[in-house]
Amino acid sequence: xxxxxxxxxxxTLVNSIIDLSACANYALKEFGFLTHETEExxxxxGNGIPKMIERALPSEHRNSETIEKVKDVxxxxxxxxxxxxxxxxxxxxxxxxxxxxxxMKIAVVTNKAQEMANKVVINAFGDMFDIIFGKRDxxxxxxxxxxxxxxxxxxxxxxxxxxxxxxxxxxxxxxxxSGAVAVGHIWGYRDEKELRDNKAEYVIENPMQxxxxxxxxx
Length: 218
What we know:
By secondary structure, this protein is of the alpha/beta class. The chain has helices spanning 17-30, 49-56, 64-81, 92-101, 114-125, 146-155, 169-178, 192-197, 209-217; strands spanning 4-7, 14-15, 87-88, 105-113, 131-135, 162-166, 181-185, 202-204. The protein has a six-stranded parallel β-sheet, with helices on both faces. Strand 7 (181-185), helix 8 (192-197) and strand 8 (202-204) form a beta-alpha-beta unit.
């Protein structure tokens, strides 16, 4: 029986790509680097902010010092503009309400820095989530399962009593690595092939389909 659902954040709960790309491009321009189209950022995100900055930089400038400088400018800008265009996907709030009504625990598990994860989630969903688990010192990034397993332990549930849902290969591999039911979806930033290639047990097209999976597993 499924007792808890763990959600990715960017590309799953909220469409944040416009704000992420705008702030990253602002930081790149500050240092004279070329910028990128918003669509390109769909493939830059997913492994945390430093990795997004690294991918956005020209290959010859992907050193730790430059990444850190650009990241600092990005964070300064993003801390102000994180909600300019970011909003929850259609059907997500309805799904969350249904899960809460069923007595399920729900959490966010994201590679986004903890402070920014808190801001984005609370701005979009208030206090709906039981746990917001962002990138923390000493905890490896997804697809390492440590964050997911930490949340499961806090919930007091077993991995096979959880669903992990996200829009990227990183997310479904996190679910698989943690022993949860790994669910991918295609309303976010990546396609079905990536999800299937990274061990998604299910791939869904809209949020409410998750309820069918939960029913099937009960």
